[in-house]
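Example for tutorial group B:
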C-alpha cells in the first residue's frame, strides 16, 4: 500500500523559506515519480513540481520556477521541496503524490491532473504572511 507523509509546513513571512518533506513507504520508490501539488481556497489544485526518482528528471510549474527546488533521497525514500522567496500566492495546502513511472515520460506529465496517482499524503499547510 502506497503511504506518503508530508511534513515541514508552517507560517512564514513573505520572502522566507520552508522545506517540505514527503516520506514514502509501501512501494518500490525507484519505480515512481513523486510530485508536489497544492490547493488554495477558491483555486484549482496545481501541480507544483514533480521528480522521476530513478532518473532525477524534474518539472516545475512556471509559478515556482527559480524559487522551488525538488530533490529526492533514495536511501530514505523521501522527496523534498525546498521553497524560497515565498509569496502570499504560495499559501496553500501542499500534498505529495506517487505516480507510477513510465520510461521516457516527461516529468511534467506526472504533474498533470489526469495522470494516475497511486497515493496521496494527508497534506501540510503552508501560510505565507505579507
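The residue assignment follows.
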Amino acid at each position: 500500500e502506497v503511504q506518503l507523509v508530508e511534513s515541514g509546513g508552517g507560517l512564514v513571512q513573505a520572502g522566507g523559506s520552508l522545506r517540505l518533506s514527503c516520506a514514502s513507504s509501501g512501494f518500490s520508490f525507484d519505480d515512481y515519480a513523486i510530485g508536489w501539488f497544492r490547493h488554495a481556497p477558491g483555486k484549482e489544485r496545481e501541480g507544483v513540481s514533480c521528480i522521476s526518482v530513478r532518473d532525477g528528471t524534474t518539472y516545475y510549474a512556471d509559478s515556482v520556477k527559480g524559487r522551488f527546488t525538488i530533490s529526492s533521497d533514495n536511501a530514505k525514500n523521501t522527496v523534498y521541496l525546498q521553497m524560497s522567496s515565498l509569496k502570499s500566492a504560495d499559501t496553500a495546502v501542499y500534498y505529495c503524490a506517487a505516480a507510477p513511472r513510465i520510461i521516457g515520460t516527461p516529468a511534467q506529465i506526472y504533474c498533470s491532473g489526469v495522470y494516475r496517482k497511486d497515493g496521496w499524503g494527508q497534506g501540510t499547510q503552508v501560510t505565507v504572511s505579507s
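Helices lie at 107-110. Compare this with the pattern of hydrophobic and polar residues in the output above.
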